Request: fold
Amino acid sequence: MARRGPYAKGLSRRREILRTALEVIVRTGYSSASVRELAERVGLSQAGLLHHFGTKEELFVEVLRARDEVDAGLAEVGEAGPGEEEAGSDEGEAGGAPAGRQEDIGVDRFLNIIRRNAVVPGLVHLYVRLQAEAADSSHVAAEYFRQRQQRVRQGLVQAISAEQRQGRMPADLDPEAVARTLMALADGAQAQWLHDPAVDMAGLVAGYVEQLRQQA
Reply:
């Protein structure tokens, strides 16, 4: 049944804010994305904008969730540039459910997401900063990162196991260890890239994957 009335209007407004926040961060970077600018872009006061999310930090966590949904959607329909992306959909609240399905996280798909990140430094900065802050279990982003890491790890374990069955990776590899290594490489490469844009994030991770495949 379609949602109607104030609730549906609230969901639509929330999606609009997330789309706008995602656009602003892509365009100007995380550090320059102020609540004041976001509020002005969607025709709200700062208090009105935060009414939908609670705090600026909670808003940015939802931006990351929305970006995860964009990545999951692009993985299903094909590649698209940053200008073609849209956070959320009319079928539900952007960020209201875990982004993507475990089986959507293939090894090559994982690499493609890292490649796309190279054109959105503001989002990478936001991700790396909140990930570090979320090491404190009381941080608003802690549960998001716990769930995300579990979801991505499980998806990669499934993908690596599938490659082993297909003879594309050595059968004696521990899929769990390989998945954790891929995630650590990706996170480390992103942190290095923020300091030195010459770092090839996807290339570092892809090189490891290729080494494994050559051993099969």
